[in-house]
Design brief:
The protein is an alpha+beta fold and 188 residues long. The protein has six helices and five strands. Pfam families: GrpB.
Length: 188
């Protein structure tokens, strides 16, 4: 369950690096699960059986957790490198391919502008997707860690204009929670 980093020499940006955007963490919105449900139905309709799994991930999937108002979805397809099997159908539904990271689990990221969506594409049994699911479920079941992470998110967002800087600022708390989660699962 070690941390995997992408190849630092890989340029993942399909459409160029995006302009800086202020990071905003907002209170939990009880409408997020219903919004996700509509998005899941659209992805499944667009892809049919090519969508092996579609799951609500990230902070908007954890009741009571403040979040950036962006729905994170993990999509599992048979082979993320075969973009022709899913990207055209998702682009027809309004998504744009933003990132291509072959060195990091063959990850692809597509985004939808309205509502804001990050659609992460992985292959079956990808450790990153499994880690996302474990973290979501851990925060749903452990209020103290959910609250600790909520505070880290609020602190990390203060005055930040880059998502990568926001992620770096909350990394220590995130890794502390991962350690407890992985230890409880018997992985470390």
């Amino acid at each position: 369950m070690r941390h995997y980093d992408a190849d630092p020499d890989e340029d993942p940006w399909v459409r160029g690096k995006p302009a800086p955007e202020r990071v905003a963490v907002v209170p939990y919105d009880p409408a997020w699960p219903a919004r996700y449900g509509q998005l899941e139905a659209q992805v499944r309709e667009a892809l049919g059986p090519a969508a092996l799994a579609v799951e609500h991930m990230g902070s908007t999937a954890v009741p009571g957790l403040p979040a950036k108002p962006v729905i994170d979805i993990d999509l599992t397809v048979a082979d993320p490198a075969r973009e022709d099997a899913y990207v055209p159908a998702l682009e027809a539904a309004g998504y744009l391919l933003i990132l291509r990271e072959p060195s990091w689990h063959q990850h692809r990221l597509l985004q939808l502008a309205a509502p804001r969506v990050n659609l992460h594409v992985f292959g079956p049994d990808c450790p990153e997707n499994i880690r996302h699911r474990m973290f979501r479920d851990w925060l749903r079941q452990h209020d103290a860690d959910r609250d600790r992470y909520a505070q880290a998110k609020r602190d990390a967002a203060a005055g930040v204009m880059q998502v990568m800087e926001y992620n770096k600022r909350k990394e220590d708390v995130l890794r502390q929670i991962y350690e407890r989660m992985f230890r409880a699962a018997g992985f470390i």
